[in-house]
Amino acid sequence: MRDFIKRMIAEGLAEEISEPVSSVYEAPKRAFFSKKMLYFHNCDGHKCVMNAIADRKSLSVALGIPEERLVKTLAACTYAGKTHDAGPLTFVPAKLSALPIMKHFPKDAGRYLTSGIVFSAWDGVENASIHRMEVLDDTHLIGRIVEGRHTYKLLQQAKAAGEKLPVAIVIGAHPAVTFAACTRVPEGKEMAYAAEILQQDMPLYACPNGIRVPDAEIVLYGYMTADLHEEGPFVDISGTYDPVRMQPVIELEGMACKPDFIYHGIVPAGAEHKMLMGAPYEPRIYQAAANVTNVRDVFLTPGGAGYFHAVVQIKKMTNGDGKNVIMAAFAAHTSLKHVVVVDEDINIYDPNDVEFAIATRVRADQDVMIISGVRGSSLDPCRIGDGMNVKMGIDATMQLGHEDEFIRADWNE
């Protein structure tokens, strides 16, 4: 993380802020409206970085891959990187109030860890994924553990055995580790993926509960329990508030912090959140589209919350390629809502160019595909209350769904 921050500063992609800022609203608000990495030297008396991977340029710097080759290079990865055991870490008793954990918006339930990578293991199977976690007190968190995902499955296995799930929470890892933890990879291959991206052997350090973690600014360890507690409200990727749910409580036992540690915060619905939600799916969509035609590039758009809308650029080989790509994209990323397929001459990173393609090359009766009654994403505000959604694909297309009432996040009380 520290080497990455230095590179971003050297390339003029980061702004250093020396004056004191508060972890309550102020730092998140500044990050939300900034287009650069922000490196706070005094956030509640601590160093803090936000917008670490806020755009494709910063992701390129982090992974050492040219911007124009990001998706294609990542799509070719085989998850074959090497890791090795590097010995134990030294821990002290956990104390969450010693960290500048942020409260992002006034209607949030409280302070939230937003960049914490949860490492877990059960019966020899390891996993790493990011979960938001609400602070209860110095040693307890409530984790939003999405049903059906890998952490949830491991927790259910531990509960069935009458045990707690051992976990470690990593804050301030190298961005390649964060990116890998946000990517759907073969079971237990997150760190192998990160090592492959970085083209180096990755050391993993042991926690007292047996969980292995990479180098990071802060490591917390403990156990995810069968106990449930209300979690939320909290802002998610759409910039609207998630409903309150009953979620698992995490008991922390220890923490290990580097001297003068750098805390990493991610503002909900901000640029980094959208990058980490969407960019890891682009290689998956690329792989799927490559099975049906000659694909050039894939982009999950910021206007689609970095998650719901995809633009796929292809070299059309036969009639029907566009619709085949649409179906492949929906299969690769089941939370997609709209897909636009364009020719090589359209710049998929320019929304005006994509809209030009829709305006001049689409006949809705022939070029729009609508799939009704699908599950969609639980993050889509339009889906709240009906449980179903509509997916739309276009050989260059779009239309919004029905309107529902929802609360959009801002900093007004």
TrEMBL record:
InterPro entries: UbiD, UbiD-like_C, UbiD-like_N, UbiD_Rift_dom. Residues 275-396 form the 3-octaprenyl-4-hydroxybenzoate carboxy-lyase-like C-terminal domain. Residues 6-76 form the 3-octaprenyl-4-hydroxybenzoate carboxy-lyase-like N-terminal domain. Its EC number is 4.1.1.126. Gene3D superfamilies: UbiD C-terminal domain-like. Residues 94-269 form the 3-octaprenyl-4-hydroxybenzoate carboxy-lyase-like Rift-related domain. The keyword Membrane does not apply. Pathway: Isoprenoid biosynthesis; isopentenyl diphosphate biosynthesis via mevalonate pathway. Its cofactor is prenylated FMN. Pfam families: UbiD, UbiD_C, UbiD_N. It catalyses: (2E)-3-methyl-5-phosphooxypent-2-enoate + H(+) = isopentenyl phosphate + CO2. Keywords: Decarboxylase, Flavoprotein, FMN, Isoprene biosynthesis, Lyase. Catalyzes the conversion of trans-anhydromevalonate 5-phosphate (tAHMP) into isopentenyl phosphate. Involved in the archaeal mevalonate (MVA) pathway, which provides fundamental precursors for isoprenoid biosynthesis, such as isopentenyl diphosphate (IPP) and dimethylallyl diphosphate (DMAPP). Belongs to the UbiD family. This is Anhydromevalonate phosphate decarboxylase.
